[in-house]
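Session log. Operator J.P. requested a structure for one protein chain; no other inputs attached. Running the standard single-chain path with token output.
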Amino acid sequence: MWHLTCGDVAAVGVRRVLGDAAAEPLRVMRDDLAVGPLLDVDQRPCSARIAFWLSVWPDTVMPRPDFESGLSADADWLASLRQQDRPVTVWHGDSCSEQLLLARVAAALEHSELPLWEVACGTGDSGVDGRRAVGMIDPAVLSAYYLPKRVDAERQAGLAAQWRTAVAAGSDIRRWREGDFHGEDHRAVDTVLLAACTPEWRPLARVMAELMARSDGFFATDFFSFWRARELAAQGRIELAGSPGQHGYGGLQVRRV
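Structure written below.
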């Protein structure tokens, strides 16, 4: 049985639950599927997807992940799933990325007899006040959520259709609400960032935190939020000053132009 998690934080708890990794191999999928173009995410060399993450990743933060090999390896691995005989279990919660991963795997296994299983760890509420991603659960208690359920054919077909729709839509951002994905451009996110800025200098980290705390339907990460701030600065709508500091943004200040 393969076990898939979305991100390394979730993998810590899942490894603890599984125990013997040799018997139950775990694969960590690190791509945040909620943001950026998906049109070529399943097609090596995933050029558009790679270009997106290269633009998001801060220049001052090293080492930079090897997006080129990592994203292509994910695409190849998923494409090869139906040729092997090991069932797949996807661990997921209320993170849009986790739900997209489940849908992506369902599409990869469509028309295959290979069983798809899921371990549901969320609340079903994707709002910031009620959501629960796998990585948010204390590893010491995650075993209580380990209740694998076989994904039946009808649900798998529906998930696969959702994945294809999300890919074809070409949206900049996807939010998960009421069991479906809703695409949008960057305007709503940028509006929140701009509203958090003032004519006076503020720490950029505080402005980013306001966006992260108000992002219903998907988890806005710090690097994604920092990227949108840089884009707004390039458009002349805000001004950034200071030295990068921790994580590339820790020493920066921001004000509205």
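Operator note: The chain has two domains: 2-177, 186-256.
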